[in-house]
Amino acid sequence: MASLHPYLLLLVLCGCHLCLSVNGDSVPKEVGPAELNENSGTLYATCRMRPNAKLGTGMPKIYGHVMFKQEHADDTLKVAINLHGFPNSDGQLRAIHIHQYGDLSEGCTSTAGHYNPLSVDHPDHPGDFGNFSPSNGKIVQTLNSDATLFGGLSVLGRSVVVHAKEDDLGRGGDAGSLLHGNAGERLACCVIGMARPKVWDHFQQKRRRVQTRN
Questions:
Q1: Chain centroid offset of residue 2 CA
Q2: C-alpha span between 10 and 27 (Å, rounded)
Q3: Which pLDDT tens digit goes with each residue over 159-179?
Q4: Least C-beta-crowded within 10 Å: which of 89, 165, 172, 176?
């Protein structure tokens, strides 16, 4: 088998999304999903939240979506959270994290631990979104994340997990704190998959209408 051309080998090793023309041969402009070209270089993803199949008795059942938008590989990943089903008056902060696997075969347990590709302590994992305070039983919020939809570190195919407790942000003084923030039981989870732009756009339009009325 002929060896890879040095330029192609460099692209493979670096995970680059832009390709070159080598020796006059035609090489695809983008290395990655077709959606890159369809959406002018922007990737969208969504995660449809469902209650944990192994949920404990009396725990809240959480539904909704977590949505993602990233305009190019070097851009910041934008995250929109739209969840409901939380108790109205318990005052409990809820932690939300990206977990390693998009495997729901054993409920949220089979998603394994936090997605931690660089083997660092919590709360420095790229999908450690932090704590959220539900209002009227809902969490509706946008944020920026260090995670990415591009390249070898992409979170596509991984999962988002909503926890029962507050994340101690690595300050708990024990091993669990540096792994998962002692955030407690997994209330709900979902698998991150590629989405059409209208999923993100619809949420943003609906949120603007609500803000205008308020």
A1: 39
A2: 14
A3: 999 999 999 999 999 999 999
A4: 89
